[in-house]
């Protein structure tokens, strides 16, 4: 009996497959399987696997995409900008020293598990981070370390002095966070997705603090893998790893704008050309990071290609370990030798702009009047001659195998830049190294290169997040341990609490970097894009890739 | 016979241990690695130290290997660096996908290859023969990733007959039982899922089948030609046996012998081809896993487990083909 | 993917053809390996059977000239080699120079097509695509020849040592090649590239070469073994010629025909494998180098919709050349097969 049923089933399936294949009635098939879709499932193709869903243990965009739908932060960003606005906290203020931060919290908010969001929950989260135990767990808290320096008990001497002091709940509605010192990162850092507020009950119940070290890898808790609980517009549905689908369900009790669709599926498709093909086939309604070469074609076919405002920078690093590059004239010669306008025109993704500074012009501290290095090969040759650096040979490191939002195609960028440099008589020795196979190690840890290309996507609206990250202290990447003048100026600017003073200090830093220090040459700001079908309404692209899909609806 | 199997198995264990040591040590001496992959642009010297220590990469390599082997004995191959999933889980998820694809490709290659080869032999020197031979030559000369790209472009982008990638339509609700989606649909009576999975399978299977198909056609052709000249076939013809009987009993049965071997031999080529095919069609199998764990995140635990698994599969298939060979042709004794 | 091509066109093995040959390792890895081995051994013996090397070659040449397959293959290969050698004379431009005429109209999503002076238009970086295609023949030949030569050299070394000495040396070396022969070729190449500390044109060449080492080794060894007991070697030994000289002067040259045939077939595989590696992102990282596999695997894929010619032309070139080498190789194999002699 069983066998016969199976046989019949095989026959039916075979016939069905034949019918689908031969008649090409793909449309009906799609309609059958995706009935819920037109009723309100938004399928969006992401570019990689998330690590897990516990905000604090994550630091990359692919993990943040689902996390941002499920969690909220105290401070959030105005949709489509890097400007701050209220999140879980309606308002916030700080004392003149910038050490005591008082958050007035939104009332009546509930976590997905029904437990109330209040000041105690906020402090529970801050204390959880600060008191995190275990080397494995601490080593995963990249953003926490970045902002708060260290832990109650550092498991490793490499961690620093903690910036966080304590958090006090004053009633349900007010949380007061006290810091040991002010940093320029605040209050922007409170909007970091990593610092999202999770349900204390769920954190306890699903053992969130346990990151098990298993040999040469980590194992995450049930909270991080199967039971993330936040306050966001979507609740967690599941991650089917055989199908590469993350399912999120609408949270009907969301405090803000409730999700328009019933369900959102994040489909992970690593290959950019396959993402585009799926979009065309109609199996997904949106894709992230289309190949720059495809944007125009997609637009022509009626898709909405939305450029995110550029919040990144690509630069050419100059390593002053090479004595020739220690000479400012040689560094300037390189800047003059590069035809950045042509680079942007021929290889820049749509909307890319030549960069004159290491931060986008929307960030505070951007100086409109820095020294610009217009393409001038003659001047470059002259400067090289003056510096006695004619016939210079430089090792140029680049990662051939990676695509970053600010660097869609490193091989081509390298080839173009090398060409420009060779035109002024600098001999370039290209050294390709795989992105995860030694490029960053060679460049940032060992400083083997003379030149290299690398970049950065900003995390929050603060000049320190750009300029401070690059040049705030001695780094092997730029080979110089003695540019103390620059380090001091940046530290001082970062420590300035009042807005006017902060702005002035950073503008001066940027002017000096361009004219006096030139540790690297900024190349371009390149906006990453997001593409959706014309039926998708309400998508707001964020410069920080901080898209919340509750505003998205599908019209049919 | 039993002794042979036991000896082979012992050899297998020794080989695998040696191979695992080699791979483990070699991988960890490469530049870059998981720490670099995990930190991305956000690496600072402090974070490097922290993560390196947390992962245990600061310990002597032999100590690391010892710990690794200790866990392997208990069946624990560690966790994926990226997602923290147990490696065994990651691989057992990808494995059915590759097997499903390879099986489908083999079915196409054999189902089409043997009849074509037979026809070519029967029509030797005439146009069907020439056409087939030309086709097989083209089949082995075309880079299969390019063929896959072309097929995908034509059949999914220009005419929307097939889906461009993946194993199932996104959002389709199916029950995962064995990981073989076509089979799962049948088992759970979710026939729409089966049909959908088959529909996704067609293009990748055709792409992957080209090379084995070409090879099987040629082997069958040559083999049938040889058998046709054998005395017993001529005798049978002279005896006036029915054509069908000759074809079935005498020609095909004898000609099939080398074909069976070739099928076994093609598993290697099939695995090679699967890496390319899976990348073209975003097929979540072992091939994708390999390329991802190399260039994606230097996922050493996954990578070393796959290499060991590949070695294991190959030797086992090897053994099975030996046995089947002995089964079909009693004159051959497994040494 | 080297398996299929070397496999294709094999004289069909007959039942009972599988009896162990003299000196063949008894503990072979199994019939799967044996089948490949048997095929190679057959080829090895074909060339060794006739001891008069010159007459064999002349005989084979005569048959080749009459075979249209060989002629087509020969013409393709000949043209390819000519283009490769004379690339600087044929190509209108420097393949790595960027031209203002081309970069002017170049953006990330438009690549200028044919214009005066640039019959095939631009490549993604404003270089002359035609010149790159022409120089591509040279680079492709370079990669193919080097990969084949390295594989050949290592294989010949191993095979010659095994064949010349026999005994335990033979057993150990052949056991090693058996294992290598058993691995899926592209997977082996991928693993090798992944395990190389840095990728370059040389890792690609080397990875592709290693794949063919066991094939050549087994071929050489078979041929040597077949000759060890042959009349001319026995005669030389009786005359007191040193063992080393026997190997170098008498045995090696006689094995060469078979090796050349195999090398021709290996070349086709080498360029296909190199292209596959590029496609997987594990190929030569230097895109300045015009090599067809690299052009197809990188630019062809990335700009397929912007300008499909960037994929079509290199792909076509690879297919035609691979086809040429396969045709020629198979015709040669047929020509030296004693079964076809009359």
Can you lay out the helices and strands and say which pair or pack?
The complex is a heterotrimer of chains A (556), B (335) and C (342).
Chain A: H1 2-23, H2 26-33, H3 35-40, E1 41-46, H4 61-70, E2 75-77, E3 84-86, E4 89-94, E5 100-105, H5 119-130, H6 135-139, H7 142-148, E6 164-170, E7 174-179, H8 200-205, E8 212-214, E9 217-219, H9 222-225, E10 234-240, E11 245-250, E12 263-268, H10 272-281, E13 286-288, H11 295-300, E14 304-307, E15 312-318, H12 323-326, H13 328-337, H14 340-347, E16 353-354, H15 377-386, E17 393-398, H16 410-423, E18 427-432, H17 435-446, E19 451-457, H18 463-471, H19 484-495, H20 499-517, E20 520-525, E21 529-532, E22 536-537, E23 553-554
Parallel strand pairs in A: 1-12, 1-13, 17-18, 17-19
Antiparallel strand pairs in A: 2-3, 4-5, 5-7, 6-7, 8-9, 10-11, 11-12, 13-21, 14-21, 15-19, 15-20, 16-20, 22-23
Chain B: H1 2-28, H2 34-39, H3 45-55, H4 61-73, H5 87-122, H6 127-141, H7 144-158, H8 181-187, H9 191-228, H10 231-239, H11 243-281, H12 286-296, H13 300-328
Chain C: H1 2-7, H2 31-49, H3 53-66, H4 68-85, H5 87-90, H6 100-104, H7 129-165, H8 167-182, H9 185-195, H10 201-228, H11 231-238, H12 243-279, H13 292-302, H14 309-336
Can you summarize this structure?
The complex is a heterotrimer of chains A (556), B (335) and C (342). Chain A is α+β, with helices and mostly antiparallel strands.
- Alpha-carbon Rg of chain B, integer: 24 Å
**Uncertain runs of chain B with pLDDT below 50, 5 residues or more?**
none
Mean pLDDT of chain C: 79
**Could you give a short account of the major beta sheet of chain B?**
none
Number of helices of chain C: 14
Integer average pLDDT of chain B = 84
Proportion of β residues of chain C? under 5%
Helix/strand-derived category of chain C reads mainly alpha
């Amino acid at each position: 009996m069983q066998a016969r049923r199976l046989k019949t089933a095989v026959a039916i399936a075979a016939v069905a497959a034949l019918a689908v294949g031969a008649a090409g009635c793909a449309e009906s098939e799609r309609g059958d399987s995706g009935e819920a879709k037109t009723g309100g499932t938004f399928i969006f193709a992401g570019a990689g696997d998330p690590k897990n869903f516990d905000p604090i243990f994550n630091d990359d965009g692919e993990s943040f995409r689902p996390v941002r739908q499920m969690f909220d932060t105290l401070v959030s960003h105005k949709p489509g900008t890097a400007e701050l606005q209220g999140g879980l906290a309606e308002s916030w203020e700080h004392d003149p020293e910038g050490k005591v931060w008082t958050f007035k919290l939104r009332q009546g908010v509930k976590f997905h598990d029904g437990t109330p969001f209040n000041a105690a929950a906020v402090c529970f989260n801050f204390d959880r981070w600060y008191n995190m135990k275990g080397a494995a767990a601490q080593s995963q808290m990249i953003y926490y370390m970045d902002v708060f320096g260290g832990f109650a008990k550092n498991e490793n001497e490499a961690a620093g002095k903690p910036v966080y002091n304590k958090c006090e709940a004053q009633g349900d509605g007010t949380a007061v966070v006290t810091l040991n010192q002010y940093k320029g990162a605040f209050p922007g850092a409170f909007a970091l997705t990593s610092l999202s507020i999770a349900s204390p009950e769920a954190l306890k119940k699903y053992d969130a603090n346990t990151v098990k070290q298993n040999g040469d890898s980590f194992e995450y808790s049930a909270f991080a893998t199967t039971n993330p609980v936040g306050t966001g517009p979507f609740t967690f549905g599941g991650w089917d790893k055989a199908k590469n689908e993350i399912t999120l369900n609408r949270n009907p009790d969301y405090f803000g704008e409730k999700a328009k669709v019933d369900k959102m599926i994040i489909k992970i498709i690593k290959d950019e050309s396959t993402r585009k093909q799926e979009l065309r086939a109609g199996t997904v309604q949106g894709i992230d990071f289309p190949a720059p070469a495809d944007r125009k074609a997609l637009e022509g076919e009626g898709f909405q290609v939305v450029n995110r405002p550029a919040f990144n920078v690509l630069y050419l690093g100059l390593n002053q370990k090479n004595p020739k590059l220690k000479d400012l004239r040689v560094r300037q010669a390189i800047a003059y030798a590069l035809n950045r306008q042509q680079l942007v025109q021929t290889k820049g993704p749509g909307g890319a702009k030549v960069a004159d500074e290491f931060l986008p012009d929307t960030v505070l501290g951007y100086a409109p009047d820095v020294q610009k290095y217009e393409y001038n090969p003659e001047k470059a040759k002259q400067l090289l001659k003056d510096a006695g650096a004619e016939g210079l040979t430089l090792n140029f490191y680049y990662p051939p195998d990676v695509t970053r939002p600010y660097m869609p195609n490193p091989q081509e960028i390298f080839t173009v830049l090398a060409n420009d440099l060779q035109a002024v008589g600098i001999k370039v020795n290209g050294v390709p190294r795989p992105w995860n196979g030694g490029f960053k190690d060679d460049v940032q840890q060992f400083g083997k290169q003379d030149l290299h290309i690398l970049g950065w996507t900003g995390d929050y609206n603060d000049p320190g997040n750009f300029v401070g990250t690059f040049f705030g202290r001695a780094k092997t990447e730029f080979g110089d341990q003695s540019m103390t003048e620059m380090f001091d100026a940046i530290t001082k600017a970062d420590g300035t609490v009042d807005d006017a003073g902060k702005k002035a200090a950073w503008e001066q830093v940027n002017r000096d970097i361009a004219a006096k220090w030139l540790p690297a040459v900024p190349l371009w700001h390149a906006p990453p894009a997001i593409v959706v079908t014309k039926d998708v309404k309400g998508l707001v692209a964020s410069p920080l890739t901080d898209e919340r899909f509750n505003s998205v609806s599908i019209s049919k | 016979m039993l002794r042979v199997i036991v000896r082979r198995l012992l050899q297998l264990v020794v080989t695998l241990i040696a191979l695992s040591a080699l791979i483990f040590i070699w991988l960890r001496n490469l530049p870059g690695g998981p720490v670099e992959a995990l930190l991305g642009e956000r690496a600072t010297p402090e974070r490097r130290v922290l993560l390196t220590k947390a992962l245990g990469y600061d310990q002597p390599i032999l100590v690391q290997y010892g710990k690794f082997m200790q866990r392997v004995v208990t069946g624990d191959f560690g966790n994926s660096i990226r997602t923290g999933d147990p490696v065994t889980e990651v691989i057992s998820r990808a494995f059915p996908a590759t097997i499903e694809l390879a099986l489908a490709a083999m079915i196409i290659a054999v189902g089409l290859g043997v009849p074509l080869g037979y026809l070519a032999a029967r029509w030797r020197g005439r146009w069907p023969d020439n056409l087939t031979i030309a086709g097989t030559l083209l089949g082995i000369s075309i880079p299969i990733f390019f063929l896959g790209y072309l097929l995908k472009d034509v059949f999914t982008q220009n005419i929307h007959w097939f889906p461009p990638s993946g194993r199932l339509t996104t959002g389709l609700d199916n029950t995962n039982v064995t990981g073989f989606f076509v089979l799962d649909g049948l088992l759970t009576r979710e026939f729409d899922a089966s049909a959908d999975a088959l529909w996704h399978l067609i293009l990748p299977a055709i792409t992957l089948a080209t090379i084995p198909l070409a090879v099987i056609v040629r082997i069958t052709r040559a083999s049938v030609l040889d058998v046709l000249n054998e005395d017993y076939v001529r005798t049978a013809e002279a005896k006036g046996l029915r054509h069908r009987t000759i074809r079935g009993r005498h020609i095909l049965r004898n000609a099939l012998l080398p074909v069976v071997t070739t099928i076994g031999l093609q598993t290697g080529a099939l695995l090679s081809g699967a890496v390319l095919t899976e990348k073209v069609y975003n097929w979540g199998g072992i091939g994708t896993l390999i390329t991802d764990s190399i260039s994606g995140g230097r996922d050493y635990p996954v990578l070393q487990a796959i290499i060991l698994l590949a070695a294991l599969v190959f030797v086992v298939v090897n053994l099975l083909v030996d046995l089947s060979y002995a089964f079909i042709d009693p004159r051959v004794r497994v040494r | 993917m080297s398996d299929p091509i070397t496999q294709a066109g094999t004289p069909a093995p007959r039942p009972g053809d599988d009896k162990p040959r003299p000196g063949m390792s008894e503990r072979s890895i199994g019939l799967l390996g044996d089948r490949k081995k048997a095929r190679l051994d057959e080829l090895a013996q074909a060339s060794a059977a006739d001891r008069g090397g010159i007459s064999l070659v002349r005989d084979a040449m005569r048959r080749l000239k009459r075979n249209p397959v060989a002629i087509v293959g020969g013409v393709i290969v000949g043209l390819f080699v000519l283009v490769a050698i004379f690339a600087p004379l044929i190509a209108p431009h420097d393949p790595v120079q960027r031209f203002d005429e081309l970069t002017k109209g170049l953006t990330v999503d438009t690549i200028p097509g044919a214009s005066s002076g640039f019959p095939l238009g631009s490549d993604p970086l404003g270089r002359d695509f035609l010149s790159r295609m022409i120089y591509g023949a040279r680079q492709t030949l370079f990669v193919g020849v080097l990969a084949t030569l390295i594989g050949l050299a290592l294989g010949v070394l191993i095979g010659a040592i095994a064949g010349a000495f026999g005994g335990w040396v033979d057993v150990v070396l052949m056991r090693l090649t058996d294992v290598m022969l058993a691995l899926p070729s592209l997977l082996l190449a991928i693993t090798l590239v992944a395990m190389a500390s840095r990728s370059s044109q040389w890792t690609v060449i080397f990875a592709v070469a290693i794949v063919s080492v066991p094939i050549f080794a087994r071929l050489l060894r078979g041929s040597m073994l077949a000759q060890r007991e042959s009349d001319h070697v026995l005669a030389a030994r009786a005359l007191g010629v040193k063992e080393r000289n026997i190997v170098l002067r008498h045995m090696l040259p006689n094995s060469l025909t078979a090796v050349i045939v195999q090398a021709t077939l290996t070349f086709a595989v080498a360029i296909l494998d190199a292209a596959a590696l590029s496609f997987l992102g594990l190929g030569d990282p230097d895109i300045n180098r015009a090599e067809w596999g690299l052009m197809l695997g990188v630019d062809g894929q990335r700009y397929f919709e912007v300008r499909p010619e960037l994929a079509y032309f290199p792909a076509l070139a690879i297919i035609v050349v691979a086809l040429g080498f396969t045709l020629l190789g198979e015709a040669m194999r047929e020509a030296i097969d004693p079964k076809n002699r009359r």
